[in-house]
Amino acid sequence: MKALYPSTPQRIAVRQAELGVGFQVGRALPTRERRMVGAWCFLDHLGPVDIGPDGGGMHVGAHPHTCLQTFTWMINGEVMHRDSLGSEQVIRPGQVNLMTAGHGISHTEDSLPGASRLHGAQLWIALPPEHADIPPAFDHYPDLPTWQEAGATLTLLAGELAGRQAPTRLYSPLLGVDLHSASGGRVSVPLNAGFEHGLLPLEGRLSFEDQEIGPQDFLYLEPGRPSLELELAAGRRLLLLGGQPFGQPVTMWWNFVGHSRDAVAAAQADWEAGSERFGTVPKATERLAAPRIPW
Ligand code: MN
Q1: What are 173-189's pLDDT values in tens digits?
Q2: Is-contact 210 86, C-beta < 8 A?
Q3: Tens-place pLDDT, residues 68-99
Q4: Nearest to 191 by CA among 35, 3, 9
Q5: How many CA atoms lie within 13 A of 43 on its CB side?
Q6: Which residues contact 3 (CB under 8 A, 6 or more apart)?
Q7: CA–CA dist 40, 204 (Å, integer)
């Protein structure tokens, strides 16, 4: 007899997208099949890609955000973040940058020459309606809870897991974990059964409940799972996301999130008009133009 739980994971194809000029990323969220995992509403897998000593890599000119947090997790390489609050922060491997856009912010991102390899993940977290218009903020987290288990290194990027708590500033119940199995082995990760989860292989392929998946596959797991059981070969790395189902759709257009089309259209008009709402990013050499609202 087939068990009711866990239900079969939903397998979603990661699509190729361009970030900045000519930098290809793997976009796992949003897709037609799945818009969000908890409040996680955007997931780009950056690289891994080798970049030359003269630059290349990721370069994104000044652009605005609203009603979301941008969340960057670095595995290899270094990226300079500058924003309209005056923040200037290089993110290095093992660190998280978290920019809370709230009412409005703008920023630039540039991978630094010197590092030969760029690998990371960039996510957005939608802010719930009661926090949609909070003042913008920027946080850098150089030290995250990290521990060993069954041949794997777990790093807690967001939320709580196994009695540990990540320091990252959140506005809804979420989980983010990087799991790297250097020597291989069987790992069991306890889950909050009230959360939905997403699984993205970042390095190498793995089998999960009869499905063979790699970095081109994102798995969505419905709520109701007490744990995640993984049999990993040496060198595998994956990103585990989780969250309480967000409960309502959000409007996403270009770099804006909002709780209505009007809110997003207003943000687009403010950016086009050069409104103070989004400030100015120091040293920015390019300001990205907002595409026309399609409705
Ligand atoms: Mn951005």
Answers
A1: 999 999 999 999 999 99
A2: no
A3: 999 999 999 999 999 999 999 999 999 999 99
A4: 9
A5: 32
A6: none
A7: 23
CA–centroid distance, 61 to ligand 1, in Å, is 9
The dotted CATH code for 10-243 is: 2.60.120.10
Cβ partners under 8 Å of residue 109, min gap 6: 20, 58, 59, 60, 79, 80, 81
CB of 65 closer than 8 Å to CB of 256: yes
Cα(216) to ligand 1 centroid in Å equals 23
Taking 50 as the threshold, does the pLDDT of residue 129 lie above it? yes
Cβ-based neighbour number of residue 60 at 10 Å: 19
Q: Does the CA dihedral 178-120-87-124 come out positive or negative?
A: negative
Give how far Cα 137 sits from Cα of 65, 143, 153, Å: 12, 19, 30
How far does the centroid of ligand 1 lie from the alpha carbon of residue 182, in Å? Answer: 31
Ligand 1 centroid vs 274 CA: distance in angstroms?
A: 17
Separation of CA 89 and ligand 1 centre (Å)? 14
Q: How far is the CA of 63 from the centre of ligand 1 (A)?
A: 6
Question: For the chain, which residues make up each domain, given as ranges?
Answer: 10-243
Angstrom distance (rounded) from CA 86 to CA 127: 22
Q: How far apart are CA 122 and CA 114, in angstroms?
A: 21
| Prediction pTM value | 0.96
The angle formed by the CA atoms of residues 120, 122 and 124, to the nearest 5 degrees, is 160
Would you state the structure tokens that stand for residue 223, as one six-digit string? 């709520």
Cα–Cα distance between 90 and 81 in angstroms, integer? 6
| Per-residue pLDDT, 23 | 85
- All residues at 6 or more sequence positions from 93 whose CB lies less than 8 Å from its CB, including other chains: 74, 75, 76, 77
Q: How far apart are CA 253 and CA 104, in angstroms?
A: 15
Measure 32 CA to ligand 1 centroid, in angstroms.
22
Tokens of 287: 């300001």
